[in-house]
Structures are given as structure tokens and as C-alpha cells.
């Protein structure tokens, strides 16, 4: 080893000695600390000596190395964990700090902002028995975050979908919430749906926010569902008037990931949220919203700011009016007003919804927004539970502004509209 490389190794050894001293001085005896101080001073003097030769320098380094091995505990000699744990902890603190105060990643679960942003969607298979190859699954997962789902019949018989009564006297497809794992280890809540094949229950689990009810009906486009009593006589089911055989796929589809974007958490500390901003807010501070005061569950929603304190809003012929004039700060307002493409226009809240309508409930009904409050609206007005149902968003609930869609790699990738 050249003297230059030897001195570099000596400096690294001194750094290790300083770390042992600072981490273990409270458990080392005064004699050991004095011995360490003497060995460090000796090596430091040699490293500063321009005329030092290799042999005495190597002997000095060996003495310090031997001492550190005796007193270093888990700090010395270096292992993977001792060498990298500190770096990992610092990195984790930096990441948590950035997420908490600057930029927070957020994945859109539903399609209330479609087509500006996309939530989770189902990609149906025309041939349910045509399972995708492993390479195809991997490619679709990497590019679209798509996860494959299939429900295979274990026996033969008629296909039926169990139904459940709703609070307003209607019926919905039955499901129950169950505990599950996200990414294989993170706890999450899943929705478990049941399909009857010859009266035998077959279950499938999907993310709780996924529109499984629509996916079930789309999976059988050529059938005429009929509401019938189940064979037990204790409930109802949709009879699809179609059958399955053992080994056949009753359901086969991919769930594509909703748009993943970064939320700017810092800008709103310096400027007020503006009408047209796509903003993320917490639900716990909003009574009546799912996840609000009634449930004590904190969730994050993304909507567009339809109005701010002091403004008066109204819906008229698909357009959003502010103080009697069409709102035009962003393209989504104009596209909805023109009912352009997949933008269906702003609509009045449905009267038969399980969430009672509160704002802009009909023609001529205006919303006068109080100071410090915001109206949150989905760009997909007909498919959005928003301020029209649960009222205003308080300023303290606002998290930040959506700024960049980073995944998946679709036409929406880039700056958030």
C-alpha cells in the first residue's frame, strides 16, 4: 500500500475512533478512555508528519485498530448495519420531513375528478378464460400499476350476486369490509364481494375505494339481471341468467392504479388557495362527510376549489357561476360548461343519495360561501360526492395543492391541471 493510501486509511480509522468515543464514552472506564486518547493522538501526529514512513505508520494504525476492536462494541469493527443504519435513519428523517412540510405523494382512489385525473379503473377481458401471461402482467404492473384479478368457479351452477338493503330503502350489491395488506405488508382495509355459483359463495377482495359494483355489472354485459330471493329465503340476489362450469373464470379484470401525484404542502402558507386549484384536504374536520366527525377516521380527498369565502356560487345549464358570471379560471370550468368530451357539466346533487344534498340543490339555489371556507367540487360532477352533499371545507382542513402527476405513465403524466 502506498503512503498516500495508507494515510487515507489512517484518517478513516481516526473517524471510527471518534465515533466509538462519542457513542461509548459513558460505558468505558477512565483508563480505557485515556488509552484511546493516547492512541488517537499518536496516529494523528503521524498523519501530520510529512516524513513518516510506511512501517511505523502501519504499526500505529494496528495498535489503534486492536484497541477499537476491544472497546468498540457494535460500533467497531464496521458491519453493514453499523455502517448504514445512521445513513438510513437520516434519510428516513429527511423523507418524512419533506413529506410533512413540502411535498406529499397522494394516489387518487376514485374517479370524481375524471377525466382531469383518473382513479382506479377496471380493464375488462372479453374472453374471461384468456389469462394474461406473466410477462404481460409484469409490464402492465410497471407501466400502469395494474393488478390482475380473477374469480374461478369451483363448481357448476347459476351465477347470482347477493344484494343488501340500503338506509334509504333501496338495494345495493352486498360486500363487507375486511382487514388486508397493501404491498404485501402495510395494513389496509379491503372490500370483500361475494358471487354465488350454484348457491356456493365465491369471494373476491378489492381495494375499499374501487368501484367493484360497476365492475360486476360490466362483467356480464349480455345478461338481463333479475332481483330474486336467494334459495335460503333470507335475502335477495341478482340472478344473471347465466351459468359457470368448474374451472371457468366468472370474473377477470385488471385494476389500474389511480393517478399518483405530488401535493405541494408549503405554498398555501404564503398565499391563499385560489378558485380552480386542485387541492387535497383532510376529511376529519368536515361533519357529515364519510370519514368525518361521525366516524373519527381521517382520510384525504382531492377536489377542485369551486369557490372561496365571500363568493356566491350557482349551477346553471352545466356551468358553474360565481356572482352571476361563468367561472373560467381553469379549463375544467369551461369544458364542463360546454359539456366537452367526457366532461358532463356540473349537475345538481341527486335527491335519492344516501348523503343529503346541502349546496346548490336546484335551479336558482345559490351558495353564499362564508369567510375561511371553500367549496370543493369534482370535475366529474355526476359521479362526485363533494360540497354539494356535505358542505364547506374549512381552511384548517386544507393540506395543499396538487402539482405533478408522476405515475402511471399515461397522457396525464406531468404538471397537474
Automatic annotation (TrEMBL):
<keyword id="KW-1133">Transmembrane helix</keyword>
<dbReference type="InterPro" id="IPR000223">
    <property type="entry name" value="Pept_S26A_signal_pept_1"/>
</dbReference>
<dbReference type="InterPro" id="IPR019533">
    <property type="entry name" value="Peptidase_S26"/>
</dbReference>
<keyword id="KW-0378">Hydrolase</keyword>
<feature type="transmembrane region" description="Helical">
    <location>
        <begin position="87"/>
        <end position="108"/>
    </location>
</feature>
<feature type="domain" description="Peptidase S26">
    <location>
        <begin position="257"/>
        <end position="407"/>
    </location>
</feature>
<keyword id="KW-0645">Protease</keyword>
<dbReference type="GO" id="GO:0009003">
    <property type="term" value="F:signal peptidase activity"/>
</dbReference>
<keyword id="KW-0472">Membrane</keyword>
<protein>
    <recommendedName>
        <fullName>Signal peptidase I</fullName>
        <ecNumber>3.4.21.89</ecNumber>
    </recommendedName>
</protein>
<keyword id="KW-0812">Transmembrane</keyword>
<dbReference type="InterPro" id="IPR036286">
    <property type="entry name" value="LexA/Signal_pep-like_sf"/>
</dbReference>
<comment type="similarity">
    <text>Belongs to the peptidase S26 family.</text>
</comment>
<dbReference type="Pfam" id="PF10502">
    <property type="entry name" value="Peptidase_S26"/>
</dbReference>
